[in-house]
Amino acid sequence: MRHLFLDTNVVLDFLARREPFVAPAADLFQLAEKGSVVLYVSNLSFSHALYLLRKSAGSATARALLLDLSEIVSIASVDAAHVREALRSGFTDFEDAIQYFAARSVPAITHIVTRDAGRVPRRVPAD
Q1: Mean pLDDT, 10 residues at a time, over the chain (127 residues)?
Q2: Which residues are within 8 A (CB) of 38 and not within 5 positions of it... i.e. 6 or more apart?
Q3: Can the peptide bond before residue 20 be classed as cis, meaning omega within 30 degrees of 0?
Q4: Of these four, 40, 56, 69, 76, which has the most CB atoms within 10 Å of its CB?
Q5: Residue 42 in contact with residue 99, Cβ under 8 Å?
Q6: pTM of the shown model
Q7: Which residue range(s) make up the domain with 25?
Q8: How much is the pLDDT for 118?
Q9: Is residue 41 part of a domain?
Protein backbone atom coordinates (compact mmCIF):
# COMPACT_ATOMS: atom_id res chain seq x y z
CA MET A 1 0.00 0.00 0.00
CA ARG A 2 1.25 3.47 -0.86
CA HIS A 3 1.67 6.12 1.82
CA LEU A 4 1.32 9.60 0.35
CA PHE A 5 1.92 12.99 1.91
CA LEU A 6 -0.40 15.74 0.64
CA ASP A 7 0.78 19.29 0.37
CA THR A 8 -1.61 22.01 1.50
CA ASN A 9 -2.50 22.97 -2.06
CA VAL A 10 -3.88 19.47 -2.77
CA VAL A 11 -5.92 19.53 0.44
CA LEU A 12 -7.36 22.92 -0.50
CA ASP A 13 -8.10 21.76 -4.04
CA PHE A 14 -10.27 19.02 -2.55
CA LEU A 15 -11.92 20.92 0.29
CA ALA A 16 -12.54 24.16 -1.60
CA ARG A 17 -13.40 22.30 -4.82
CA ARG A 18 -10.89 24.36 -6.78
CA GLU A 19 -11.16 23.76 -10.50
CA PRO A 20 -9.57 22.24 -12.47
CA PHE A 21 -7.74 20.45 -9.65
CA VAL A 22 -10.62 19.07 -7.56
CA ALA A 23 -11.08 15.87 -9.59
CA PRO A 24 -7.53 14.50 -9.20
CA ALA A 25 -7.55 15.47 -5.51
CA ALA A 26 -10.93 13.79 -4.99
CA ASP A 27 -9.56 10.64 -6.64
CA LEU A 28 -6.85 10.46 -3.97
CA PHE A 29 -9.38 10.79 -1.17
CA GLN A 30 -11.57 8.10 -2.73
CA LEU A 31 -8.58 5.76 -2.83
CA ALA A 32 -7.97 6.50 0.84
CA GLU A 33 -11.58 5.79 1.77
CA LYS A 34 -11.34 2.45 -0.08
CA GLY A 35 -8.17 1.62 1.85
CA SER A 36 -5.97 1.58 -1.26
CA VAL A 37 -3.64 4.35 -0.04
CA VAL A 38 -2.82 6.05 3.24
CA LEU A 39 -2.83 9.83 3.09
CA TYR A 40 -0.87 12.08 5.42
CA VAL A 41 -1.34 15.80 5.99
CA SER A 42 0.75 17.92 8.29
CA ASN A 43 -0.74 19.75 11.23
CA LEU A 44 0.58 22.90 9.55
CA SER A 45 -1.75 22.25 6.60
CA PHE A 46 -4.72 22.22 8.94
CA SER A 47 -3.94 25.70 10.23
CA HIS A 48 -3.29 27.07 6.73
CA ALA A 49 -6.46 25.46 5.38
CA LEU A 50 -8.60 26.79 8.23
CA TYR A 51 -7.26 30.29 7.68
CA LEU A 52 -8.03 30.19 3.95
CA LEU A 53 -11.30 28.23 4.02
CA ARG A 54 -12.93 30.38 6.69
CA LYS A 55 -12.63 33.38 4.36
CA SER A 56 -14.69 31.69 1.65
CA ALA A 57 -16.84 29.18 3.53
CA GLY A 58 -17.12 30.66 7.01
CA SER A 59 -15.51 29.46 10.21
CA ALA A 60 -18.07 26.77 11.15
CA THR A 61 -18.04 25.19 7.69
CA ALA A 62 -14.24 25.33 7.50
CA ARG A 63 -13.92 23.60 10.87
CA ALA A 64 -16.45 20.94 9.86
CA LEU A 65 -14.56 20.25 6.62
CA LEU A 66 -11.29 19.92 8.49
CA LEU A 67 -12.83 17.69 11.14
CA ASP A 68 -14.04 15.39 8.36
CA LEU A 69 -10.58 15.53 6.78
CA SER A 70 -8.98 14.53 10.09
CA GLU A 71 -11.01 11.30 9.99
CA ILE A 72 -9.65 10.35 6.55
CA VAL A 73 -5.96 11.24 6.85
CA SER A 74 -3.11 10.59 9.23
CA ILE A 75 -1.69 13.78 10.68
CA ALA A 76 2.07 14.25 10.48
CA SER A 77 3.38 16.63 13.10
CA VAL A 78 5.65 19.55 12.39
CA ASP A 79 8.06 19.99 15.26
CA ALA A 80 10.99 22.22 16.20
CA ALA A 81 13.50 20.00 14.39
CA HIS A 82 11.53 20.32 11.15
CA VAL A 83 11.50 24.09 11.45
CA ARG A 84 15.26 24.18 12.03
CA GLU A 85 15.90 21.80 9.11
CA ALA A 86 13.70 23.97 6.89
CA LEU A 87 15.56 27.11 7.91
CA ARG A 88 18.90 25.46 7.12
CA SER A 89 17.74 23.93 3.85
CA GLY A 90 18.18 25.24 0.35
CA PHE A 91 14.44 25.46 -0.29
CA THR A 92 13.33 28.82 -1.63
CA ASP A 93 9.83 28.31 -0.20
CA PHE A 94 9.91 27.95 3.59
CA GLU A 95 6.47 26.31 3.85
CA ASP A 96 7.46 23.71 1.24
CA ALA A 97 10.59 22.98 3.26
CA ILE A 98 8.64 22.45 6.47
CA GLN A 99 6.22 20.12 4.65
CA TYR A 100 9.12 18.19 3.13
CA PHE A 101 10.82 17.58 6.47
CA ALA A 102 7.52 16.63 8.12
CA ALA A 103 6.98 14.06 5.35
CA ARG A 104 10.51 12.69 5.77
CA SER A 105 9.88 12.09 9.45
CA VAL A 106 7.28 9.39 8.68
CA PRO A 107 9.22 6.36 7.37
CA ALA A 108 6.24 4.89 5.51
CA ILE A 109 5.77 7.98 3.30
CA THR A 110 7.36 7.51 -0.11
CA HIS A 111 5.84 10.35 -2.15
CA ILE A 112 4.74 13.93 -1.72
CA VAL A 113 1.70 14.96 -3.76
CA THR A 114 1.81 18.64 -4.66
CA ARG A 115 1.09 21.02 -7.50
CA ASP A 116 4.31 22.90 -6.77
CA ALA A 117 6.24 21.12 -9.54
CA GLY A 118 9.97 21.39 -9.19
CA ARG A 119 9.92 22.67 -5.62
CA VAL A 120 10.10 19.35 -3.84
CA PRO A 121 11.49 15.98 -4.86
CA ARG A 122 9.13 13.48 -6.47
CA ARG A 123 10.15 10.85 -3.95
CA VAL A 124 10.99 11.32 -0.31
CA PRO A 125 14.60 10.14 0.08
CA ALA A 126 15.47 8.01 3.07
CA ASP A 127 17.96 9.36 5.58
Answers
A1: 95 94 94 95 96 93 96 95 94 92 95 75 45
A2: 1, 2, 3, 4, 32, 74, 108
A3: yes
A4: 76
A5: yes
A6: 0.87
A7: 2-113
A8: 55
A9: yes
Which of 88, 94, 91 shows the shortest CA–CA distance to 48?
Answer: 94
Provide the 10 A C-beta neighbour count for residue 110. Answer: 16
* CA–CA–CA angle 48, 29, 69 (5° rounding): 40
CB 112 within 8 A of CB 80: no
For the chain, give the percent of residues with pLDDT over 90: 84
CATH number at residue 32: 3.40.50.1010
User: Is residue 94 situated within a structural domain?
Assistant: yes
The reply to whether 58 falls in a domain is: yes
Instruction: Indicate the length of the chain as a whole number.
Output: 127
Strand partners, 76: 42
Q: What's the total number of domains in the chain?
A: 1
How much is the pLDDT for 115? 85
State residue 117's pLDDT score.
65
- Decide if 122 is inside a domain: no
- What's the Cα-to-Cα distance from 90 to each of 23, 59, 109, rounded to whole Å? 32, 35, 21
